[in-house]
Amino acid sequence: MEDHDCWVQGFKGSAVASGLKKKGGVDLGLIFSEGDGVAAGVFTTGKVKAAPVLLCMDHLQDHRAKAILVNSGNANACTGSKGLADARRCSELVATELKIPRKDVLVASTGVIGAPLDMDAVAGSIPALVKSLSAQSIHRVVDAMMTTDSFPKRSVFEGNAGGKPFRVLGIAKGAGMIMPQMATMLCFVLTDLRIGAGDLRKSLSSAVETTFNRITVDGDTSTNDTVLVLANGMAGNKEPSSSELDLFQGALKSVMGDLSAMIVRDGEGATKLVRIVVRSAATAADAERAARTVANSSLVKTAFYGADANWGRVMAALGRAGVRMEEEKISILIDDVAIVRNGLGVGTEAEGLAQEKMKGREFSLVIELGQGNYEDFVLTCDLTHEYVSINANYRT
User: Fold this and answer.
1) CATH entry 3.60.70.12 includes domain 3-263
2) Class for domain 273-392, per CATH?
3) Using CA atoms, how far apart are residues 207 and 203, in angstroms rounded to an integer?
4) Which positions are annotated as active-site residues?
5) What SS3 class is residue 168?
6) What is the pTM of this model?
7) Integer CA distances (angstroms), 25 to 72, 125, 175, 322, in order
8) pLDDT, tens digit, 9 for 90 and up, residues 142-184
9) Which of the residues 10, 153, 164, 283 could staple to 234 if both were Cys, CB 3.0 to 4.6 A apart?
10) Distance of alpha carbon 396 from alpha carbon 383, whole angstroms
């Protein structure tokens, strides 16, 4: 996606280097909506929630927002009452510069946990952030969000509601500490569609469930996981009809699906994107649980890295998933190559064909439980030496 495609009517963005990152670089970004509208958010379900998450949950009680301030280099998590006061101060500083109510400003952070936020760096940079806001600089906000990411993550959808064209733009960061249960994952979605607050919340919840809640890089959930959607209504459409709401929900799922796949593809040290599909499960919960258990298995993920069709590791992971299953009914495939039928290995020739599939950048691991009619999936990646190196040296 080109930088010039990264725009939505009525939204402006900016980014600066404030000094929050030890190694330097852009680390503070701002999004501002010129129009009034509605907002919704989904956050980490972990019991340890960062100060900006708590602030957003409070500010979104009226389902409105006009600005998002985001920083990288510091998570402002596990920082006590001072951390919450700092998050509030961030929103106040932005609100003062933009001349809007404090509660119309949302805050998001990502970076090292446990260190206090350098408020001098933030406060000194906000006037420049506001002054440099422009419709052409939304793409720069992604740069301000990145930590261990290797590339910026952006996706756009164009649609039509009541004869009025509208856009949905999503930007995200995330590469490690990714197993959202709504990682660190931050995602901001901007649209100029006019939509009611209730419809926006429902659309977001539905889209998150089948996108960000179906990915894992390392099985860890962050203190800061945040997905925010701002809709400013500047497309000029009337209240969307039922079919137009379906279109918007599809747009959200498309954009967030693109972003979630990018996050897994960019998993720290990852070389492969793998779709774990579980079919013929006894219940929907069993299908999801089995897929997630296999997707989070370190032994399975290292086998992905080595292009090793080691189906025994998959069987072992299934055995501890706590789902209804019978070993003799299980089949396992790599894409369309069966390596297990009725609980038994098909043979070395099949494994050789599967290993060739596994040498690619993307493939599917399909598991058939033979228990019912339910199906689900989880996106994951391989586990490499580089993942260990990145996380062993994260704070140094």
Assistant:
1) yes
2) alpha beta
3) 6
4) 184
5) strand
6) 0.88
7) 10, 13, 18, 46
8) 999 988 788 889 999 999 998 999 999 999 997 554 444 433 5
9) 10
10) 22
